[in-house]
Design a protein that fits this description.
Layout lengths: L1 E10 L2 E11 L4 E5 L6 H9 L6 E6 L2 E2 L5 H4 L4 E4 L11 H8 L3 H5 L1 H11 L1 H5 L10 H13 L5 E5 L7 H16 L3 E6 L2 H7 L2 E6 L2 E7 H6 L1 H6 L4
Parallel strand pairs: 3-8, 3-9, 6-7, 7-8
Antiparallel strand pairs: 1-2, 1-4, 4-5, 9-10
């Protein structure tokens, strides 16, 4: 589905990504983990078109994604739930969800998608007329994910969904993400909380200083001595 080959990204002469290659197959749950500054968010911004790479290739369903204008990439079935949630604070919960359904597919499937979103996140149904800016951090994260699902995507990209949230809320968010995946959606997750990400993914990549340091199935990475020592505190 998504193939990235030898991706290089630089900011003002500083290289944020160097030779990054990864694959996301249809139906997979792929996690990219690593410390702050590893290049995880830059990777997502490059896929979405916010950042232009210096070198490398990105293909999506066999087509050259880098040739597609950023504003049109969502129409291909890619939903990017950004770091820090970035909900529309002055709009209601329902208006935020409607904004997510602006793609052709999102509009066509709005009648199917909305009940699924509200079933996944019942609090959004309760607060549908409340301004998004008045929600708690956890509720805003649920809204951000719901807004991504409203576009009826084929690939859901989640950037640090645990950021700034209490552990109990993080557990609830990850339970919903697993459920979304079990319902058949392909997920690419960037996450600093390595244990939670690797426990739930099919395949994982460890990104360090802009490079892929290691990759493998969740079992392989969870049992790797370096990963256990550096990221899992074991």
């Amino acid at each position: 589905m998504l193939k990235i080959r030898s991706l290089d990204v630089a900011y003002g002469g500083l290289r944020a990504l160097s030779g990054v290659s990864l694959d996301v197959e249809r139906g997979q749950f792929v996690a990219v983990v690593g410390p702050n500054g590893a290049g995880k968010t830059t990777l997502f911004k490059t896929i979405s078109g916010v950042v232009t790479p210096a070198a490398g290739e990105i293909t999506y369903n066999g087509a050259n994604l880098l040739a597609v204008p950023p504003a049109e990439r969502a129409q291909l079935g890619i939903a990017h739930v950004p770091e820090g949630r970035q909900v529309f604070a002055s709009m209601t919960v329902m208006e935020n969800l409607e904004m997510g359904a602006y793609t052709r597919k999102g509009q066509e499937r709005w009648g199917e998608s909305l009940p699924i979103i509200l079933q996944l996140f019942p609090i959004l149904a309760e607060r549908r007329d409340q301004l998004a800016g008045t929600l708690s951090g956890g509720e805003q994260q649920m809204l951000a994910i719901g807004r991504g699902l409203a576009s009826a995507p084929d690939l859901l990209m989640l950037d640090e969904p645990s950021m700034g949230l209490a552990p109990t809320i993080v557990d609830a968010i990850f339970e919903r993400i697993q459920l979304i995946h079990k319902n058949g959606l392909t997920i690419l997750l960037v996450e600093q909380r390595v244990a939670e990400a690797l426990e739930t993914c099919d395949h994982g990549y460890v990104l360090e200083t802009g490079r892929v340091a290691m990759e493998g199935t969740h079992k392989t990475l969870m049992s790797d001595e370096r990963v256990r020592r550096a990221y899992l505190g074991m």
